[in-house]
Amino acid sequence: MKDGKATQEERKAQRFLCLLCLLCSCPLFAQDGATRADWPHYGGTQFAWRYSTLDQINTSNVKNLAPAWMFQTGEYTDGLQSTPIVVDGVMYLSTARNQVFALDAATGKVIWNYKYTPRANYAKAGSQGVFVQNRGVAVGGGKVFMGTIDSHLVAIDQNTGRELWKVAVDDSRQCGCNILSAPLVVKDKVIIGENGGDGAFRGYLTAFYIKTGRLAWRFYVIPAPGEPGSETWKGESWKYGGGAPWMTGSYDPDLDLVYWGTGNAASDFYDGDRVVSEKDDPKGVNLHTASVVALEADSGKLRWAHQEIPDDEWDFDSAYEVILIDREVNGRMRKLLVHMNKSGLTFVLDRVTGQFVKAFTVPEVQTWISGITEDGKLIGRQSPGVGKPVTICPTVMGAKSWNQMAYSPRTGYIYTPTIETCSDVTANRQEPREGIFFAGGGGARRLPPGRETFSHIDAFDPMTGKRVWSFPYKYGLLASMLSTAGDLVFTGDPEGNFFALNARTGDKLWSFQTGAGHRGSAVTYSVNGRQYIATPTGWQQSITGGMLSSLFPGIGETWRVGSTLVVFALPEAIR
Amino acid sequence: MKELATKSTKGTKALCLVCLLCLLWLISPSVSVAQNLPDILNRGEEVFSQSCTGYCHAVKGAGGGAAPRLAARGFDQAYINNIVTRGVPDTVMQGFAVTLSRTDFTAVVAYVASLNGITNPSITAPALGLGAAAVPDRPVPAEAASGRDLFYDATRSFGRCSTCHEVNGLGIPVAGPIVKAPANVQELRGLTTPLVSTVLMNGESMPALVISKGTRSIIFYDLTTPPPVLVTAEPSAVKISDGSPWRHASVMASYKDAELESILGFLKAALTAR
Known about the structure:
The complex is a heterodimer of chains A (575) and B (274).
Chain A: H1 8-30, E1 51-52, E2 66-72, E3 85-87, E4 90-94, E5 99-104, E6 110-115, E7 138-140, E8 143-147, E9 152-157, E10 163-168, H2 172-175, E11 184-186, E12 189-192, E13 201-202, E14 204-209, E15 215-220, E16 241-242, E17 250-252, E18 257-261, E19 291-296, E20 302-307, E21 323-329, E22 332-340, E23 345-350, E24 356-361, E25 371-372, E26 378-379, E27 385-386, E28 390-392, E29 406-407, E30 414-419, E31 422-427, E32 441-442, E33 445-446, E34 455-461, E35 466-473, E36 482-484, E37 488-492, E38 497-502, E39 508-513, E40 523-527, E41 530-537, H3 543-550, E42 564-569
Parallel strand pairs in A: 1-36, 13-16, 27-31
Antiparallel strand pairs in A: 2-42, 3-4, 4-5, 5-6, 7-8, 8-9, 9-10, 11-12, 12-14, 14-15, 17-18, 18-19, 19-20, 21-22, 22-23, 23-24, 25-26, 28-31, 29-30, 30-34, 31-32, 31-33, 34-35, 36-37, 37-38, 38-39, 40-41, 41-42
Chain B: H1 2-27, E1 30-31, H2 37-57, H3 77-86, H4 102-115, E2 123-124, H5 142-151, H6 185-189, E3 196-201, E4 204-213, E5 218-222, E6 229-233, E7 238-241, H7 257-273
Antiparallel strand pairs in B: 1-2, 3-4, 3-7, 4-5, 5-6
């Protein structure tokens, strides 16, 4: 330093110190499930937090939030449930009937439009395949990937919108299945789930190589005869036992494991033809339905599985999002996952081993069980009887539907929308017919008595299972949650309101009437330093949306369909 | 001879009568079913519970599902028949005329009619073809049923025949229609595939079934591994040459000879029925 310049040794020491700092900070980044300028994956990142570090819009200025641009897809009858993907200032938005629009994310200007043409007569009457919808695309390797209503996976050129390859994941005319969920890009592969597990169908995940479209692997949720777990199925029932992983999973690059939730066993309500052991057999029943599975990303090989609902008799899929977080347990940092199934039971597991850590329940009205043990086993099961209705709360609509919860690392809370419904369910024996609805019973849904509100957004601390705050809503909330570093939580309601809550208190800070009901997933991103909040709008008067509408006669019919993306930002003068 | 002639005439008359009755049954728009109505309604309820409750019309069409209530709506039978036949455009309600057997179709129409207070429903045959919202799962002779099940066998994943072949409206039509079934398993195993070419793309050579060669794009199925991948490429990016070492036998590994025998039986029956 004699001459004011560092000696070679000193420079070496500085470099070493920098390297050390970098190495020390690596674990922090490795655990980071937050998005920044982009919204690159369905759940934000592959950790599925639906959380962004963007804080230009925050609790102090959200009151000024105003529409920046809107985009109408033109498919106004089917609703818009998509999660827009944003990469480098371009938004990729899919529609219910499998169009993809590439839009300038700052203006909404169309860059290209891809229109998928499904195969003629693709839908099998009497199957789940008749329902159209799409919940988002995946982007990777210069391509945009979309699952289709006729069970294909397509790869589109990210720059031009031209189709590059297409592969039939299944024959929708036979399986009665279709693809509504967003794919997940993992390294050199794209992984896609399949919908159809309420029909006579055997669920699976399939991975294809991004570059070629060739098959990489397929994982069947239900093991074939001779494979471990097959002994939990009676006779030939494994062929039609459901378990479809019909939503989008997560990925941990450090562990190189893919996590996915699996659907309910079928027939849904009648278990007499599929169960060989006690309903609460600790080894599991009808494996690996109603479970979280961890698969090796390269091979699709099962590393571990954790069944949440052995012998699911209530159509309580566990197919929902898997949130990957690292938190302290008994003084030790652990790699965990948080996962809620349709019943509202929420599990915290060690994502390295699948070991149980904690479970808690979110809905306020719960009759299907009387409770859970400390290690997450069901107590006091209420099984639907043959010819004897049993009151089951929540219902097949779910305490939460497929719409995703969010997590904030700033508060440590999960934010989840819950609906409170009941149903008098009767089980009926049913012969399976491939691809055809295989419910094995059912019952009309109704509202639980003695309540004035039937939905709520809750903040839960997943490590304690305690509810921190609750925001009540009169009807039902069926849109995903978005959380941001501005300490805001965004979602929308069926009446058309899109609103922001304070992430720490649950206080409503802002609301905007968008004109149509919310059943999609809002995202946030920034272009040229300006933060945007984008929300799909457009109610769907079928499946769960239709079921909810029918519970509020005279009101539910007024929840408007549509298919418009509404994008908000702070006015230029304010930010 | 006279006696014989008389017998013959009587026989002819009887035959004509039977034919006439059959013809009447076939063309009659309405058949009385009063004598076995309870059985038909029971079957109708069974079909309804399998195909119509699910997410949609709820048990006994009572409402509370995602689709409209069907019970006590004052529907007349012509309306019910029409909707079940054709479906409702722009909704998830599909026509069932070609997916349900005649017996099940008539039963479910009668059942929905009964939910609307029609105590003595007539059974109207579906107007075939009008409600073609899905593909018929055409019946095959009993002896061909096992071959049919093997052909479409979902437990074989992408190793089943229907990964590449469409027969009777089911399966993925990668290959062209099967117009002639191989005579026996040996012939099937030795099947040549002169239409399979070799495509060179991105420095990689692959067996391919070329679908179209346009000035803007070349479309082909990459047959490297099942399922085939439909690739669209710029003409300058690919080089196509005739012939390929690919063999049809390489994608039949999941089937044993006896199973292939059954599949050939199914194909022959399906081709004969056309």
